Request: fold
Amino acid sequence: MQFYPIFLDLRGRSCLVVGGGAIGTRKTEGLLAAGAMVTIISPQASDKVTRWATERKVRYLQRTYCEGDLNGYFIAFGATGVSEIDVLMACEASREGVLLNVVDRPILCNFISPAVLQRGDLAIAVSTGGKCPGFAKRLRQKLERTITPEYSPILEGIAAARRDVLNDLSLSETDKRRRIEEILDSGYGSLT
Reply:
């Protein structure tokens, strides 16, 4: 199966995580970083989830998942490891048109989560199409040694110079494209 790679704007979107353990906590952390409004459903939760709930960063429902819980959510993650809940979520997501990722069950997903290397606004996603998430994680770790933290300020410098060129009304579109290529070829673009 071929997946379409995409980065979603989740700011202010209602997102659901079912499972409050280590994996659910990691999924929640990523959603919060993206500005999502997160609800977590789980009979038990990690210390982080409990703290986020106390700080009102997430809504935490301390119970098991029930049919109908996906209603109104844009995206959901199943991180319980309970087959019956995974299948129930997948059926409901299909019926309700909710984007769903069930951890380690790609057959039940309508999207998969890549391993992501983040350097400021620079994000590199690695996916194996759900075949072997551990391989994607290892490849991301290898990339971390090459794509080091200084790439973030390099990107910021290139972006600022690009903005200046795009805002220069004296340049034609052809000249703008040429100038941007020059910026990328210059010291700013020295990415080796």
User: Anything to note?
Assistant: The mean pLDDT is 93.
